[in-house]
């Protein structure tokens, strides 16, 4: 995630200014995927521009893995999930050669998985678990919604809003450091937890549509939770992510409701 926050304020403002010529009516819009309305104050063009810059910077800063097996696996799963999502982006799937257990997505279909997280995945279905989750963030327009919430909260459009999921699995405290703590806890974090739970649900739908086994999603998140047991953790109220228990319980409930298990 720190790859994405290095863009300076001037670059952000320049990006926004150049996007401002596009006709755009901000406000509450219905998202048919989510079945709820969203406050969207930023245009697709604004988000796309920030996203493209952040992606280029990440490719320059991180070491891209050339491991043939990991790359083949990520491409294979990525293509299937992308197709299942129906999102017609110019998708890119890149493995970063780092021990971090992390994965994230930028609007426009730019997906990064770190070697560290891929090495904990036992099969394609588990890769598809996280891939589906990332694609669901895009379908949910979570970046635009988060950016809009930041604007509404008077924070301004920061890069924290653009990269999603840096720290899907690890690293929960960073958002709080980037954003003002009061506003963060009061306004933004509940939405971030909501985003995570939404992404889990719709991500599993993509998995199933792509022919993967949704039970692996439960196994994956459960094993992640087990690894964390005993480590100091951020309390749920102070985290951008739901607690493991909340997340796993919600996922299990959804799998049952959809007759996936
Ligand atoms: Zn997420």
TrEMBL record:
<dbReference type="GO" id="GO:0004222">
    <property type="term" value="F:metalloendopeptidase activity"/>
</dbReference>
<dbReference type="InterPro" id="IPR051156">
    <property type="entry name" value="Mito/Outer_Membr_Metalloprot"/>
</dbReference>
<dbReference type="Pfam" id="PF01435">
    <property type="entry name" value="Peptidase_M48"/>
</dbReference>
<feature type="domain" description="Peptidase M48">
    <location>
        <begin position="69"/>
        <end position="254"/>
    </location>
</feature>
<dbReference type="GO" id="GO:0051603">
    <property type="term" value="P:proteolysis involved in protein catabolic process"/>
</dbReference>
<keyword id="KW-0645">Protease</keyword>
<keyword id="KW-0479">Metal-binding</keyword>
<keyword id="KW-0482">Metalloprotease</keyword>
<comment type="similarity">
    <text>Belongs to the peptidase M48 family.</text>
</comment>
<protein>
    <submittedName>
        <fullName>M48 family peptidase</fullName>
    </submittedName>
</protein>
<dbReference type="InterPro" id="IPR001915">
    <property type="entry name" value="Peptidase_M48"/>
</dbReference>
<dbReference type="GO" id="GO:0046872">
    <property type="term" value="F:metal ion binding"/>
</dbReference>
<keyword id="KW-0862">Zinc</keyword>
<keyword id="KW-0378">Hydrolase</keyword>
<dbReference type="GO" id="GO:0016020">
    <property type="term" value="C:membrane"/>
</dbReference>
